[in-house]
From TrEMBL:
Pfam families: Cas_Cas4 (PF01930). Residues 4-164 form the DUF83 domain. Its cofactor is Mg(2+); Mn(2+); iron-sulfur cluster. Gene3D superfamilies: 3.90.320.10. Belongs to the CRISPR-associated exonuclease Cas4 family. NCBIfam families: cas4. It comes from the Bacteria. The gene is cas4. CRISPR (clustered regularly interspaced short palindromic repeat) is an adaptive immune system that provides protection against mobile genetic elements (viruses, transposable elements and conjugative plasmids). CRISPR clusters contain sequences complementary to antecedent mobile elements and target invading nucleic acids. CRISPR clusters are transcribed and processed into CRISPR RNA (crRNA). This is CRISPR-associated exonuclease Cas4.
Length: 170
């Protein structure tokens, strides 16, 4: 199986979400990926296409890579900085390193917040990323869907209706 940046991002939020995503249970109308994609496409920096490249590494796509400065750019519509975004970009840096591109960095842009977050992959982070990948494989290969996390953290999740529908019927 191919672990992509989306797996890493979801894994850092909720193991159940990772499992649902892997098993192709999609909540189309609220899909965060669709929303994020259209946000990026419609509102953000059309000029970036000239400098940045979309690259595919080990089956994982990096949308905006600047090969001149070796910077992975990631745009998030979120109104708060999240550690899952950092993990996603660290995974991209890991893939670059694995494919012979050393010393790349990441830059997460939060247009809503007018903030940026620099991301690096230190030597000690490499084994961490490898441990995430192994754990994701364990989770998604299990027949058991993981338990829900704390409800207060679920409000903005696209699987909210799926996870809590039964509760509302009762
Ligand atoms: S609604 Fe909550 S428990 Fe369900 S997948 Fe999303 S974050 Fe996980």
């Amino acid at each position: 199986m191919t672990i992509t940046g989306t797996y890493i991002k979801y894994y850092k939020v909720c193991h159940r979400k990772t499992w649902l995503f892997h098993h192709k249970i999609e909540m189309e109308h609220t899909s965060e990926l669709v929303a994020e994609g259209s946000f990026i496409g419609e509102k953000s920096y059309p000029q970036r296409a000239e400098r940045y490249r979309e690259i595919l590494l080990d089956g994982s796509r990096i949308d905006f890579y600047d090969p001149y400065d070796k910077v992975v750019h990631e745009i998030k519509k979120s109104d708060k900085l999240e550690h899952s975004h950092v993990a996603q970009v660290q995974f991209y840096l890991y893939l670059l390193r694995k494919n012979g591109i050393e010393g790349a960095t990441g830059l997460i842009e939060y247009p809503k917040l007018r903030q940026t977050q620099t991301v690096r992959l230190e030597e000690e982070d490499v084994s961490l990323v490898e441990a995430w990948v192994q754990d994701i494989e364990r989770i998604v290969n299990s027949e058991q869907c993981p338990e829900r996390i704390t409800k207060s953290k679920c409000r903005s999740c696209s699987y909210f209706d799926f996870c809590y529908a039964a509760e509302e019927v009762l």
